[in-house]
Structure formats: C-alpha cells, structure tokens
Predict the structure.
Amino acid sequence: MLLEIKDIHVHYGKIEAIKGISVEVNEGEIVTLIGANGAGKTTTLKTISGLRGLSSGSITFDGKDISKMPGHKRVMAGLGQAPEGRGVFPGMTVHDNLLMGAYSRSGDFTADLAEVYELFPRLAERRTQMGGTMSGGEQQMLAIGRALMAKPKVLLLDEPSMGLAPLMVQQIFSIIEEINHRGTTVLLVEQNAQQALKLAHRAYVLETGKVVKSAPAAELLDDPDVQAAYLGGGLGH
Ligand SMILES: Nc1ncnc2c1ncn2[C@@H]1O[C@H](COP(=O)(O)OP(=O)(O)OP(=O)(O)O)[C@@H](O)[C@H]1O
C-alpha cells in the first residue's frame, strides 16, 4: 500500500472535525473521498498534506510514518498537492508558476515541463500570461500542472471541479485520468460525487467526520443510498 491513513482524529480547537477516519490508497489507483459540505473531506486531505496536525492516529506513506513530517518534506517525499482554491501565484507567469512546482527538485526537469505542456496545451498557449488573469478552469490546470512538476507518487486533489462549468469539469477529469494512466496515483476529494465515482477505482463516503461506506466506485454509483444522498436523488447517471 502506498498511502495508509489509520484512525486519524483531527480537532479545530475543541471541535473534533475528524473522528477516526481510515483510508487506504494502493499504487496506481484513483481513490476518491465524497460527502456533503462539512463532512471532513478537505480536513482529511489537509491532514495528509501536513497543513493540519492530527490528535491521534497515523499516516504512512511509501513505508514511512509521516504523521509528524512538515508539509514541504511530504512534497519532497512524493506527496503532490493541488490545494482547494488553486493557490496559483497571481503575479507570476504560467511558466514561472510551473517552475515553482519543481523548486524542491534537483536535476533537469525540461522533459517534465514539456509533458505538462503536452497534457495542458492551454497552459502552453498561455505560458507568458500572469497566473492571476487565467480563468478558474485554467488556474485549476495550472495548479495540477505545478503539482506534477514535483514528480509526485501520489497527487492529492482538493475539489478540482469547484466553480467550473460542466465542460471544463469534464476536461479536467479526463486529464486526471490520463495522469493516472501515466503512472501517478491519485487521491481526489470531490463534492461532485457523480463525476468522481465515474473516474475513481474506489471511494469512501464521509459523513460528519467518519467513513460511512467504502467500496469500488462503480458499486457506489449503483448504491440506492448513495444515489439518494449524493447523486441527485437517484435520477440515474
Ligand atoms: N478553520 C476551521 N476552524 C474551525 N472549524 C473548521 C475549520 N475548517 C473546517 N472546520 C470544520 O470542520 C468540519 C469539516 O470541514 P471540511 O472543510 O473538512 O469539510 P468538507 O467535507 O471538505 O466540506 P466542504 O466541501 O464544504 O469543504 C466542518 O464542521 C467545518 O465546519
């Protein structure tokens, strides 16, 4: 197993937001965490990336306990992050934003830059444009491209579909699929349960800080409870 989150508890002050969540991600998989607003998806992802500390439980990545490792070291160890709200540097060009993604690496990354531009032709067209003037979808592409520049073993994605038009969501999701085909494992947090379940191999359903279901994604797409709660009242897919 590449990434193992074991019985983590996370607090905001006295409030326990995550009440014992366990998630496993195997090499080569796309795993998704779905759930309503406030279920704890983002907090779980932030805890994995090191932006929040945990009160108890453990996170093991690539055979090492990283529970107490600082966030930037987790990136260097191979946990790539494209944060919620994108985190693009607005006053830097697209190109420089991408180069920032490789800051922790040594050696030549020309081939990786070329691959990111190949995956995202839109970024290649706009390489001299300022990050802050890109559209929401383009900024999402840039955030993912920048994360890829660190050559992650696992890519952590926090709601990449947020605020995007359906066509752009489809584009982003098909690029995520392609990134996975090329060998990167993906852990995806999504409100858009339908799209996420279509893309992922396995999924976890979170409710109020706990996992209430975990199963192959295709199974959850057909689960009447999941359909009623997260897929538009079972209107099909
Ligand atoms: N900075 C914070 N301070 C206090 N409580 C917080 C903070 N961030 C999140 N919470 C609380 O933690 C719980 C989990 O929130 P979280 O953002 O992880 O959920 P989520 O499933 O990602 O939802 P959303 O899709 O709305 O982001 C919620 O009850 C939320 O109010």
